[in-house]
Design goal:
The protein is an all-alpha fold and 214 residues long. The chain contains eleven helices and no strands. It binds zinc ion (ZN) (2 copies). One zinc ion binds next to helix 4 and helix 6.
Length: 214
Amino acid sequence: MEKHNLYFRVLESFDSKNCPFCYFVESAIEKYFNDILYEGVNDFGFIKKFRETRGFCNFHSYKLLSYKNAISIASLYIYLFKDILSDFENLNKRKNNFKKNNCQACNFIDYTEKMYISTFVNFINEKEVEEKFLKSNGFCVPHFINILESLGKKVPEWFIDFQYKKFENIFFDLKRYLDSKNVSLKEKVPKLTYEEELIYQKALKILSGYQGKK
Ligand SMILES: [Zn+2]
Ligand SMILES: [Zn+2]
């Protein structure tokens, strides 16, 4: 199978300090929002779709807001309110007024995730993929499940063993953290580093994936 740009981007994602798949999707989302804020306001194709879908879903609307780009947001929302006002004019025409359609940002994420999964699954038997992946931080639980589902019965043993070890480490680190708060252990209370103190955050993120993961 021919190796394209996406293959190398997937390989590159294994260098991330977090789940490589989360890193890949999050970087794509950041780029997507930056493009919208800087070019979307002049992109009539984007605006047309944005009006059809009545903006983004609740989660991605607040994400847009988080960039605090007042002029871009105002320039986009003026269209949405124009459309809301014209829905009032059509109230008696049995039209589907005030309807919201699928969020473009959600669709973009679905597409990005599918691309990553198909690339990873297609090339999983390449030695280079195995070697680099085994040096990564492993997938979060939701992405591990996504990949497993796509692999079907062709799951390499090294992949399962590696992911098991990663999740087992979280379990042990949580236990160690709780032991460190247990005064009854007296001198056996482990001394933790700052990073080890933050295991609760890591555990939550690994179980849920990036913020907004479906
Ligand atoms: Zn992930
Ligand atoms: Zn969305």
